[in-house]
Amino acid sequence: MVDANQYINQHYPLSANRTNITRLDVSNNNLINTINLGPAENFSYIVELNTSFNQISGFTLGQLPFMKIMDFSHNLLTNFLITNSLLLPRLSIINFSYNLLSDIGPGSVILTHLDVSNNFLTRLDLQNCKNLIALNCSANPNLSNLTLHSSFDLSNSNAFDCRGTSIGQINTTSFIFDCQTGTRTLKNATVSQSNNNASNNDTLYIGIIIGMGIIIFVGIFFLFFWFFKKRPTSVINANYGSK
């Protein structure tokens, strides 16, 4: 195991011109402790940072105005807030999967891709992320509160995964998304099926009413026919009896 800052200072010495570095990749090096990218470290032109597959437990960030991609997956992070747009004004792609995160705070407006799968999140507030196009929050068993911006497209099965959470179903204007199975049920299909069932039931009821009406009509007709047929005979017999 190697201390993260010692590794960086050894392979990217401060005496060298760190401002020329746009991509810092220290992944798969069994690094431990925290990583320091504060103002004094002079990594101000980094666009992409990859620290994945280590045992880093925290980090310090300075103002990194050009950073767009951050990959801290497969580490030991417990907390990180992604709301500071002043320090990271262009950060749009974040991978924090397979950590120990319990909270990441409200997401920033510029965020487009976020992977926080396999953590310990209980809530996820992304209502400000109007540019978000891909989200993986699966395998957070205690995650029960998810807030998304209305522009987020849940219809893309490759862009959203919330399986293995405590979230049940997410309703949209056109379909219902089941987080446990990852399936989508079109509301139009459900409504159409309901309408068909209702139409069939209405037809059945109308048929029953018409049938009953016919039976009643025929019954009344035969009753009147029988009554008028019997009445003259009774009168004649009465007249014969009077003689």
From TrEMBL:
Superkingdom to which the source organism belongs: Eukaryota
SUPFAM superfamilies: L domain-like
InterPro entries (UniProt xref): LRR_dom_sf
Entry annotated with the keyword Membrane: yes
Transmembrane stretches, start-end: 204-228
Keywords annotated in UniProt: Membrane, Transmembrane, Transmembrane helix
Name of the featured protein: Uncharacterized protein
Origin organism lineage: Eukaryota, Fungi, Fungi incertae sedis, Mucoromycota, Glomeromycotina
